[in-house]
Amino acid sequence: MNNPASPASPTSPINLADQMKSGLDAPICLTWELTYACNLQCVHCLSSSGRRDPRELTTTEAEAVIDEMARMQVFYVNIGGGEPTIRPDFWHLVDYAVERGVGVKFSTNGSRIDAVVARRLSESDYIDVQISIDGADAETHDSIRGEGSFDTAITAMENLRDAGFNDFKISVVMTRHNIDQLDEFAALAERYRAQLRLTRFRPAGRGAETWHELHPSSDQQVELYHWLLDRPDVLTGDSFFHLSALGEPLPGLNLCGAGRVVCLIDPVGDVYACPFVLHSDYRAGNVRDPGGFASIWRQSDLFAEMRQPQSAGACATCGQFDACQGGCMAAKFFTGIALDGPDPECVKGLGEDLIAAKSDQSDRSGQPATPASGPDHSRPTPVKLGARRSA
Amino acid sequence: MKFDADSAYRLHPKVAIRPEPFGALAYHYDNRRLNFLRSPELVAIIESLRDHDSVRHAFRAAGIDSRRWPAFETALASLAESEVLVPA
Ligand code: SF4
Ligand code: SF4
Hints:
The structure holds two protein chains of two kinds. Chain A is an alpha/beta fold. Helices cover 33% and strands 13% of the residues of chain A. Chain A is built from 14 helices and nine strands. Chain A has helices at residues 16-21, 59-71, 90-99, 115-122, 138-145, 149-162, 182-191, 207-214, 218-230, 292-299, 301-306, 321-324, 329-334, 350-365; strands at residues 29-35, 76-81, 103-108, 127-133, 169-174, 195-200, 262-265, 270-272, 283-286. By secondary structure, chain B is α+β, with helices and mostly antiparallel strands. Chain B is built from three helices and five strands. In chain B, the strands form two sheets. Chain B has a three-stranded antiparallel β-sheet, covered by helices on one side. Helix content of chain B is 33%, strand content 26%. Chains A and B meet through loops of A and strand 2, strand 3, strand 4 and helix 3 of B. The structure holds iron/sulfur cluster (SF4) (2 copies). The site of one iron/sulfur cluster (SF4) has 10 residues of chain A, from helix 13. One iron/sulfur cluster binds next to helix 13 of chain A.
């Protein structure tokens, strides 16, 4: 979300963050992965995309989901994937949503944004586009996404700019290799009249295997924190709130929105609390179930549980808990840290210590220290999901 | 433009409001910003603005104690600043 700063309250004693924690009538940030099909194979891909799933929602089913969003007054839906534009009915579904007052922001690698499409997109105020890049130059970017993909993204940006589409998003997942290019990313955004959006690299999907090598070092994180404090206009989807423990809080709500303000619908209609934890433990239901998406959001046991006050656990004695809230559940989950433990990137280094201790342990026992992420959709047979965690 | 409680304001046509337990959320499709309307009273005032030729008339009609007007004016001024409200 862009602007959690709110008008001064005239009357109300409520604490907004507490209100968010106990849930909203509809999500603010609803991610919908339309398909896992993709034409690229990025090493950090959060959804392990590749092939299309035969059980994907049909066009009619997808329309029904949009109808429901419209009834719930969802302001906009973030469509991703995979590469969502690969679905043959993608543009139809975008129009269908916009006609019903549900705005669409979609993430793309840019491959289908030619001049004609860019012009069409720029005509609607209800459509926003996010081009994902991983480096500010071809070398850095293509090493992750494959040769030629940087040029593809740049061509899409040129097309959007030439069509007069202002403030589209250039989105970058921050890794050890691109975090030193912050100023270059900002310059790129300016050149294409776009808004820069930086998000945190989470150890989910294919990223789980590469996280330990690719996530930013603690020095880089401190640098990022100061860079962001100086640039409140750079969007972050509130994803770096664990860094607020370094001092002055970053702009945003500074809380984990999973199941409270955030959720995800996957291509087969499964609804998860967090877009980064596609694991059976965090699956609240399926939009095909009776009652559909609205009843999952408002009544599912999982979401109800997540809206209860959470214990501060191992972070309780840390003076920064109000700012950092113990960090990101997804990051903890996939690095094998208890959910009431510190974030793996805890600015006090507590997470790193735990991970080091874990990996010692698993070396000795031969047992994996972390839960398996969701199936890798680039492989023909789905991998079985991990068992429910104990406790 | 400075906020003037003696003149009329309207909800921007590109703003959608969704009621929530604490008040409402307002989303602006032009600048893609989300605003929090932190009390049901404030939401009711905003919705009644279209029926009044000044903000203060709307306060009076809603029976809001004049000692609380300044707080409401601050909230509305900030919404005008972010173009959720526009001069009528
Ligand atoms: S678990 Fe992490 S990624 Fe998911 S909603 Fe919470 S903070 Fe965001
Ligand atoms: S100990 Fe917990 S609350 Fe404190 S900084 Fe680390 S993760 Fe945040």
